[in-house]
Known about the structure:
This protein is of the alpha+beta class. It has a single domain (5-135), classed as 6-pyruvoyl tetrahydropterin synthase/QueD (Tetrahydropterin Synthase, Chain A). It contains four helices and five strands, in the order βαβαβααββ. The protein has helices at 26-33, 66-81, 86-89, 100-111; strands at residues 5-17, 42-54, 84-85, 120-126, 132-135. Strands 3-1-2-4-5 form a five-stranded mixed β-sheet. It is elongated and about 60 Å long. The protein binds nickel (II) ion. Residues 17, 36, 42, 44 line the site of nickel (II) ion.
Amino acid sequence: MSKKVAVFRKESFNAAHRLNNPDWTDEKNQEIFGKCNLPHYHGHNYELIVKIAGKPDKKTGYVMDMKVLSDLINKEITERFDHKNLNLDTKEFKNLNPTAENIAVIIYDLLRPHIDKKKDLQIRLYETPRNFVEYPVE
Ligand code: NI
């Protein structure tokens, strides 16, 4: 089979965050980020969908072994971010605003080195059932 196929793995994690730009006044932060700027943080149930696209392996018929992909996401992403305060407990967001956009890019960068270079990787991250982001953009 030489046709390109995409496979998806869905995982989830819960984390707290606060959106804030330290270069702005409290008023400006409040105006731009609204409730997401509240000083005592708040949580989201993030839904993560990892997409891998490529030609299925001739011997296995797999684009990627889903068990391997699941273990990789758990090790690199879930264990790192689940039940954490992203601003306070993670080095990735110490100086980076933990918006869904930035979280998706960080997740991509954490996974990319562990996935076959011949395969495409795309991250979709749901912050709420209605708000979600994708990276990279196709
Ligand atoms: Ni939020």
